[in-house]
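The record is given unchanged here:
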Amino acid sequence: MQRARTAARLILPAGWLGIIIGISLIEAPLKFQAPGITIPLGLGIGRLVFTAMNIVELVIAALLLLSCVRAGVDRRFRGLLWGAVGVLLVKVAVIRPLLNQETDRVLAGLSQGGSATHLFYIAADGVLIILLVLLLAAGARRWLPAGTR
C-alpha cells in the first residue's frame, strides 16, 4: 500500500500538470481561432470545460492529500501540496465565480470581456504549474537511491 501511495504522489501531480497545460495553455487560446466559433459559443464551451477541469483538479488534490495521510512524506512535499491546494481553492472559490459573472455580462452584451479577472486566473494557473513541477521533483526524489537524494 505504501508503494501505491508513493506512486500516486508522482502520477497525480503529473496528471494535474498535464490537465492545466492541455486546457489552460492549449485548448483555451485555440478555441477562439476555430472557424465558426463565436464569442458566446466559445464562452459557453469554456465555462463547461473549465468547470470540468476544476472538478478533476479538486479530485486529484483530494487524492494527493489522502496519499499523505500516513508517515513517510517529507515536509517539502506536504508544503508544496498545501500550497497547490490553497491556490486551487482560491482559483475555484474566488476567481471562477468572478469569471462566471464576467461571462454573464459579456453574454448579456453588457461588457466587451477581457477583464483583469482572467489575468488572475492565468496567474493562479502559472503558480500551480510551478508548484506542480516542484511537487513532481519532490515526489521523484523518493524513487532515487538514498545516496543520490
